[in-house]
């Protein structure tokens, strides 16, 4: 009780440190990320895979409307987890930065550069008053000078580079799955399989139709490509992740 | 009691996350939406139907004054549910964006584009301090490159695309009704019937005169058209939704 | 007690939703409207009638100083109820909008257009921080393309169109009186009588001298005209609303 | 106790309505007015009389320094009651508006026009945050097109027109005195007498030397004139209001 | 206890009225004035005397560093009591206004004009949020058209004109002393004596060396002159105010 | 309990002193620094060594992504401890200042100059409202006119110059280790060894692979150089700090 | 308890007077000054001495990095006590003002002029909201027209001129020491000795090596000169203030 009352004193102010040096609003924004369904990134020598769990809600909702993977530039894709409307703001910001870079320097923006511009933007919302932090985490994947790169941004505005990573719900389990199954010499196809199997691992090893989005940025083409439903179905079948029978649960979207 | 007191601590600040990652003000704005009478959107291959429940209040009030369906552009209609004065702000915003698009690019704005400009505007009111969120949900329907599109915006600023959807009061029941009765091959006429039957389903399967507004955006004409009372009466009769006898209840408008 | 304490948590912040989706400050501003004496609007095919209850206060106060009916443009009148100083702000706003319309488009402003510009202005004060809502309701009546129109604005910024309507004190009773006695084919004279009888209905069916203001906007002349005391006395006599004997109560003005 | 605690919740915020639609800060500003000594205005067909009670404080204070009647323009005088420093701000505002009117239109400002510009200014301080209301009431008297006019402004920003009126301490008693003794056909001299007798009525029917300021704006000359001490003494003697013996009380000024 | 708790509710907000119409922050600023040692002004037909009690603190502090009398313009002096740093702000303001007047109109500023510009400046800090009132009172003395004038400003921003006045500590006693001993026909020398005797009256009728500052603005020369220590000693001797023996108390300065 | 409640009263406001003259938010920001893993700086006559503890987290995270040592200019390196996103802001600030100096003066910025520009920037965030302090400490090392310099910045904005210093976790122990083992005549190689041994001293005298970053700024070359993993391994081996067996703990990053 | 609770009500608001006319935040800033080690100023006919106690902290910290005496202009030095980062802001401000004066008037700034510009700057932070007061006191010493001057600024923004003064820890004892031992005819050398003996008086009459900074501004050269360690050692020896044996305590710096 004591501890609780004391905590309350510090977590209401947006930009205030607690006595033990924590920023509670940023930690609560991390909870908002956990409330969103998972997105997964896998980096292979052949390119980057982004996959997003988007379990069906209402059969009347257009599956494409639950966007969790976005093209930021020809050679960069971004997957999100958490507060959807916040994600849209950051993705718009990333797109603008990508365009500005092309206009100003006549060349595509680097993946690390873009990531850091995004995290700087996020950090401002954790230090200056008058706004709340962004309740979303992003995976930024792309090709830079022929090399696949995969970054994560969190609500504090810290950038991390990964070989394979999960954001959103069940991060603990998913990250464990990735650590066990990741190999440095995965093909892009194997990377897609790994991502799908990870997502299925939290759902009885099944993925329903339209239940995931998958995109790749190949090192060869340096192009962001979203897989269509048939391609995804092939990968699901190949990895034996088809649902057995029941398929009708309707989840509320995280907000 | 405990939990309640704790919740109070977080829901008073507009732009603050709760410890479990929720934005209470946005959730309360969703309650404001539920306080409004329902609006329904149905997408058919022949066009989009927007229908709004506007049960009579005082017999002296002009029924047309309870506007819930608005023309945003020649090819786009918007239906609202929730705080009426907030809806008017967003619809004005949508109209301005539509005009700007025509001026700047010489062509009608896309339905998805418009929806996202509206949701970006809504999101700002949930992150930056000094204002409250919008207490209203919108259905944005129209024709884009010959194809009917139907979107929903919610108070968090998230866009969703639907085949058929309900906003406002009784969303749970209405959405269930739509899921049971929607077919992908509905004609526009059948779409109007479905929308009216849905609205009637929460009112003893009856619709009083002047109790609904209906508008369509046909894929053929690409034009927003509001049905007049006679046309609506015909559809009500056709669908056997005429009220039996009593007709006099007076509801207070949601504010 | 519980409920009360909880309510207090939400009604102190100007622009904050309560858990059930209400804006308490707007609802309290509606109470400020109810504290003002009533104003009544009646729309007839021949024109619009505005009448305002202004029971005498001190015999030394100039009756004309308790302005509740104002000319907004040649063809538009506005009656108010509630916080007098707030009403003056909105009426000045309406006059400026009317003038701007004439300057910009070379024609008189439409009644609906003007009403919506006023309600948009009111809405801003309910969403953006740093100010309180307007504690006043308005009746905006006028002639548009030869047709009489009568609108109400409330503190939330919602516009309503009416055949006959009352704002301010005793709205429940007065609206009931109007619903019982309104006919669609009233002459302008009969409309004045209806308005006076409605006001008298809450005061032992009597109206003291100088106790009401009456103005009309005739469809024929399209001109706002304030009745002088003799004319009003004639209508009072005609409708048998003269006070019997005692006449001396002094009310405090609502602020 | 309950009611008191609840009231406290609403009266601390400057621009917030209470649940019953009141603005407590404005009502408290009215209390500041009551803390000031009274000022009185009397309108006669021959002109307007302004009189102010300024009972002596310290014998060392210059009586002229307790200004309560001010010239706003050649044809307009203003008397105040309440917070002295606030009064000075409003009177400066009125003088600037008077000058602007002469510069812009080449003619003296109307009394009603000036009053409404002042009350609009006052209203802003009751609606927009970041400042408190003005704790002062004014009497604005003058000649407009040959006709004497007398207005009151209160802390809410409402203008009232009066034949005779009192602001400040003892308003209830003084207004009663004026209602009993006012006649529509008073001469300007009789108006001065009425004002002095009213002030004396709350002080054993006596007025000490230097205890009142009196000014007139005559309909004939259209000029604001302050009476000198000898003239005032004559009126005091004429109305038999000389103090009998003791004369030495020292009041603290209201602030 | 009750009353105390209630008072606390109102005195924390800078610009808020209490239910009885008081501005507590202004009243507390008056307390800051009382915490400062006294300053005295005496107006005689031959000129104005300003005297300030500056009892010694540390023997190592330069007596001239405890400035309480300042030259504002050639013909104007200002004495202060209260918060020293605040006094410096207002005196700088007064000096700037004096210079502006000379530049703009080519003539020295009037004493009343200057006083009112200062009090308007003070008033702003009591009405507009974001700052506290000035915790200082001033005596502004000078010659205007050959006539000596003496004004006081208080923390509310009210100007008072005086023949003789005291600000700061012991005002009650000092003002009583002045009322008993002031004569309208004092010479400037006698005025200096009166001021010194007043200051001494609260200190066993003694003034230690360097314990007072004295300045005069003579009607003849229209020049502000600060007396040097020898001159002051002569006046002290002449008025028999030399300290008897002990001389060593060290007071803390008021801040 | 008493003391605790009292402390709470002062530590919530960002820019407020407590009664004993402390700024709690700054002290809590120091706690945020302690939550980060340690960074160490060692100054030798041959140059400056910066070393940072970055114990492995997930095997899938790119070790290079946990940046704790940054190049600020050719001749300046910066190591950080604490809130990572805050560190990035300050390092960007330092880089901009370095560039501005080169542009403006055509020469590299001095180490002390840069440090003070950074600490001035930090101080602003502790005095002016609307933001929180930076939750990070920096070590700024470089060569100025041939001489190695090593500075620390803390969250209050105070600069300190050191021969050898530790920031972040375990500062007490690490600083003790440095004081015991530092010699003024260390070679750069010995400085690297000292830094590594210090870091290992809090971890059973072991450093896992990829567990530290090391950079040097040599007095001879005046160039910031980051050691690659092989070089670091050599130093680890040379100092006998290889881990014995277990190597797999995964720490959560400090935020 | 009562009094304590009441005090808390007033000391949290930055710019608010307490009921007894005190500004608690300013008083708490004075406590921040007392938390800093002492600085001492001594004015002699031959010049001004500034001395600062900077007892050693860590043997690895550069003694020069604990700057407490700064050159503001060729002829002006400033010593500080209290919050180090705040001191740096004020000293930068003083340097800028000195430069501006040289540029604008082509001559060195006066000591009093500079002091008052600094105190005006400090005062603003005590009256206007949005920032806290400066938690530092300064000694400003220099030569003006050949005459040594020594000023103190405190957190309220009040300037004091002194012959000899101490700021920071132990002010009471140190000021007593100075009062007992100061003579008006000290040579500059004797002034240095007095300052050192004062500092030693609170530390068993010993000063460790590097434990003080000393600077002089000689009336002859009009130049600020910092003594080097050898010179200081000579003065320490001359005044028999060498430490006997133990020398190793490590104090935490005041922040």
CATH topology of chain A: Glutamine Phosphoribosylpyrophosphate, subunit 1, domain 1
| CATH homologous superfamily heading of chain A | Aminohydrolase, N-terminal nucleophile (Ntn) domain
Biggest interface, CB < 8 A: A-B, 41 and 41 residues
What is the CATH level 1 assignment of chain A?
Answer: Alpha Beta
List the strand order in the largest sheet of chain A: 8-1-2-9-10
Assembly state (oligomeric): homoheptamer
Tell the overall outline of chain A: globular
CATH architecture of chain A, by name, is 4-Layer Sandwich
Estimated structural class of chain A: alpha+beta
Question: Based on DSSP secondary structure assignment, what is the total number of beta strands of chain A?
Answer: 10
The helical percent of chain A reads 25-40%
**Largest sheet geometry of chain A:** 5 strands, antiparallel
Mean pLDDT of chain A: 88
Distance between the termini of chain A: 30 Å
What is the number of helical segments of chain A per DSSP (H or I, 4+ residues)? 7
> Using only CA atoms, what is the Rg of chain A?
19 Å
SSE order of chain A: HHEEEEHHEEEEHHEEH
Whole-number count of domains of chain A:
1
Percentage of residues in DSSP E strands of chain A: 15-25%
Low-confidence stretches of chain A: 1-13, 247-255
GO molecular function (chains A, B, C, D, E, F, G): threonine-type endopeptidase activity
Organism (chains A, B, C, D, E, F, G): Halogeometricum borinquense (strain ATCC 700274 / DSM 11551 / JCM 10706 / KCTC 4070 / PR3)
Keywords (chains A, B, C, D, E, F, G): Cytoplasm, Hydrolase, Proteasome
Family (chains A, B, C, D, E, F, G): Belongs to the peptidase T1A family.
């Amino acid at each position: 009780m004591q501890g609780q009352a004391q905590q309350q004193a510090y977590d209401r102010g947006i930009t205030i440190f607690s006595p033990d040096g924590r920023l509670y609003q940023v930690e609560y924004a991390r909870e908002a990320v956990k409330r969103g369904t998972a997105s997964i990134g896998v980096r292979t020598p052949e390119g980057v895979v982004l996959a997003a769990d988007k379990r069906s809600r209402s059969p009347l909702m257009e599956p494409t409307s639950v966007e969790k993977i976005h093209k930021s530039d020809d050679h960069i894709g971004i997957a999100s987890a958490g507060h959807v409307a916040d994600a849209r703001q950051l993705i718009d910001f990333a797109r603008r930065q990508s365009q500005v870079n092309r206009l100003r320097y006549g060349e595509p923006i680097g993946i690390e550069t873009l990531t850091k511009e995004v995290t700087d933007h996020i950090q401002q919302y954790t230090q200056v008053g008058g706004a709340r932090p962004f309740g979303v985490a992003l995976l930024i994947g792309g090709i830079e000078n022929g090399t696949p790169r995969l970054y994560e941004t969190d609500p504090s505005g810290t950038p991390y580079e990964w070989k394979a990573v999960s954001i959103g719900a069940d991060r603990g389990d998913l990250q464990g799955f990735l650590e066990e199954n990741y190999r440095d010499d995965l093909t892009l196809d194997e990377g897609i399989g790994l991502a799908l199997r990870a997502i299925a691992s939290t759902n009885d090893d099944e993925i329903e139709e339209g239940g995931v989005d998958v995109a790749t940025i190949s090192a060869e083409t340096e192009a962001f490509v979203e897989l269509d439903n048939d391609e995804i179905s092939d990968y699901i079948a190949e990895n034996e992740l088809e649902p057995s029978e029941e398929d009708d649960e309707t989840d509320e979207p995280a907000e």
